[in-house]
Amino acid sequence: MKITRYDEMSGLGLDLIREIGSIGTGNSATALSSMLGKTVRMTLPDVQILGYNEAIKFLGDPEEIVAAILVKMSGEINGLMLFVLKLDFINQVLSILMKEEIEDYYQLNVLETSALEEVGNIIISSYVNAISSLSDVSINLSVPDIAINMLGGILSVPMVEFGYQTDKMMMISGQFIIGGKVLHSDLLMMPEIQSLNFLMEKLGIING
C-alpha cells in the first residue's frame, strides 16, 4: 500500500532508509578521507522520522546559529537534502584544509564557504549515490547552496518546501571521527511522497 506521510512507512521502508544511510555513510567517509588526506570513520547511522519541533529539539536550540548545505534532487526522485554543519565540524575541516579556524559563522570568507559547500556536496552525493545504486534510479543534484541562520529558520526551509505533503522529516544522524575528533553529523532527507513511493516500488517494498 502506498503511503501519504513519512510516518506511515513500514518497518521494511525504514530498513530501506537505514540501508541507504549505511551505504551513504561508508561512501562519505571514504570520499572525505580522500579530500582531507586524513582517515575518516563514521559510526552506523541512526534513522528517525521527526516532526519540526522534535527535529529542532534533537539538534539543539531553535535560536542557535548553524550552517547548512542544501541540495535539491530531481529526475526520477524529487526532493531535497539538508546537511547541518556546526562550528566544531566546520573548524575541524578548515583546520585540515586551510590551517585556520573561525569563532563565528559570519567570519566565513568566500574560499572557506566554497570548501564547506564541497564537503557538504560530497556527503550528500554519497547518500544520493547509495539510493541510485540500490534502486537503479536516476537522480540529478542541484548546485549546493550554503545558508547561515538560526536552527529554527534553517529547518523551516524543508517544511515550507514540503509541508503541504508531510509535517515530518527523515533524519540520518551519526558521528564522524576525523583526526581523532568525534563530530556529530545530521542529514535531513526529504523526498517527495510520490518519489518515496516510487523508490519503495522499485525495491519491491510496496506494490504499485
Automatic annotation (TrEMBL):
Write down the SUPFAM superfamilies for this protein, in alphabetical order: CheC-like
User: A GO biological process this protein is involved in?
Assistant: chemotaxis
**An MF annotation (GO) of this entry:** hydrolase activity
Q: Name one Pfam family in it.
A: CheC
Keyword terms, alphabetized: Chemotaxis, Hydrolase
Q: Which residues form a coiled coil?
A: none
Query: Start and end of every CheC-like protein domain?
Result: 13-47, 112-146
Q: Which residues form the signal peptide?
A: none
Report what the protein is called: Chemotaxis protein CheC
Instruction: Write down the species.
Output: Lacrimispora celerecrescens
